[in-house]
């Protein structure tokens, strides 16, 4: 099996070389029909993020800017998320469960699929784990003086990256939280969590493009 950490090393991801715009999670978050809908973008054009009925949303983009489009819940926590849909993309970006906690301030991702892996800070591998939902590699990274749900702060990011990409299925957050805890990756009080599509432009890159249609079960 080729580990994600080996892939990242092979493509030569260096500190500061690639930079994804960081969303301010306080912007463009709306509640509708019991769900939170997030629609954030900066520095780009031709990005369309649409809030559908119930747990559905769509995204279409072809842009040099960054965006996050997603739907989920206030409060976050150890949810079991079932979702289905389509995701087709080129360039840097992810289809992921995305959330925040406070005290400690943590931004976290559980990557279900991706076009290009291009993290904006160096990732440190914390090893792999396998559960009934798949095999994942765990990473941490640190954001220094960047936007967060508490304003400009320095904080850690936690990542679970699926070895075999998929679009659709079940994500049991508690299983990831437990694996992170075994590695000393402590979470705080959950703020919100969304199933999200993200795209951005790496330094010197041509941006990202694609389409997604996602429905939460």
TrEMBL record:
<dbReference type="InterPro" id="IPR033123">
    <property type="entry name" value="GH11_dom"/>
</dbReference>
<dbReference type="GO" id="GO:0031176">
    <property type="term" value="F:endo-1,4-beta-xylanase activity"/>
</dbReference>
<keyword id="KW-0858">Xylan degradation</keyword>
<feature type="domain" description="GH11">
    <location>
        <begin position="23"/>
        <end position="211"/>
    </location>
</feature>
<dbReference type="InterPro" id="IPR013319">
    <property type="entry name" value="GH11/12"/>
</dbReference>
<keyword id="KW-0326">Glycosidase</keyword>
<keyword id="KW-0624">Polysaccharide degradation</keyword>
<comment type="pathway">
    <text>Glycan degradation; xylan degradation.</text>
</comment>
<dbReference type="InterPro" id="IPR001137">
    <property type="entry name" value="Glyco_hydro_11"/>
</dbReference>
<keyword id="KW-0378">Hydrolase</keyword>
<keyword id="KW-0732">Signal</keyword>
<dbReference type="InterPro" id="IPR013320">
    <property type="entry name" value="ConA-like_dom_sf"/>
</dbReference>
<feature type="signal peptide">
    <location>
        <begin position="1"/>
        <end position="19"/>
    </location>
</feature>
<dbReference type="GO" id="GO:0045493">
    <property type="term" value="P:xylan catabolic process"/>
</dbReference>
<comment type="similarity">
    <text>Belongs to the glycosyl hydrolase 11 (cellulase G) family.</text>
</comment>
<protein>
    <recommendedName>
        <fullName>Endo-1,4-beta-xylanase</fullName>
        <ecNumber>3.2.1.8</ecNumber>
    </recommendedName>
</protein>
<feature type="active site" description="Proton donor">
    <location>
        <position position="198"/>
    </location>
</feature>
<dbReference type="Pfam" id="PF00457">
    <property type="entry name" value="Glyco_hydro_11"/>
</dbReference>
<dbReference type="InterPro" id="IPR018208">
    <property type="entry name" value="GH11_AS_1"/>
</dbReference>
<feature type="active site" description="Nucleophile">
    <location>
        <position position="107"/>
    </location>
</feature>
<keyword id="KW-0119">Carbohydrate metabolism</keyword>
């Amino acid at each position: 099996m080729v580990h994600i950490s080996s892939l990242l090393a092979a493509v030569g991801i260096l500190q500061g070389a690639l930079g994804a715009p960081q969303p301010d999670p306080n912007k463009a978050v709306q509640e509708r029909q019991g769900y939170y809908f997030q629609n954030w973008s900066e520095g780009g054009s031709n990005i369309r993020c649409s809030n559908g009925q119930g747990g559905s949303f769509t995204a279409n983009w072809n842009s040099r800017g960054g965006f996050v489009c997603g739907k989920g819940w206030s409060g976050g926590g150890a949810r079991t998320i079932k979702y289905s849909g389509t995701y087709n993309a080129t360039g840097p970006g992810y289809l992921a469960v995305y959330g925040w906690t406070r005290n400690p301030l943590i931004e976290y991702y559980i990557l279900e699929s991706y076009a290009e892996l291009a993290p904006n800070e160096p990732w440190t591998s914390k090893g792999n784990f396998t559960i009934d939902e798949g095999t994942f590699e765990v990473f941490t990274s640190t954001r220094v003086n960047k936007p967060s749900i508490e304003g400009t702060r320095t904080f850690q990011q936690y990542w679970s990256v699926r070895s075999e990409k998929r679009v659709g299925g079940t994500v049991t957050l508690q299983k990831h939280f437990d694996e992170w805890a075994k590695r000393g990756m402590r979470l705080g009080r959950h703020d919100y969590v969304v199933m999200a599509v993200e795209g951005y432009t790496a330094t010197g890159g041509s941006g990202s493009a694609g389409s997604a249609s996602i429905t939460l079960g």
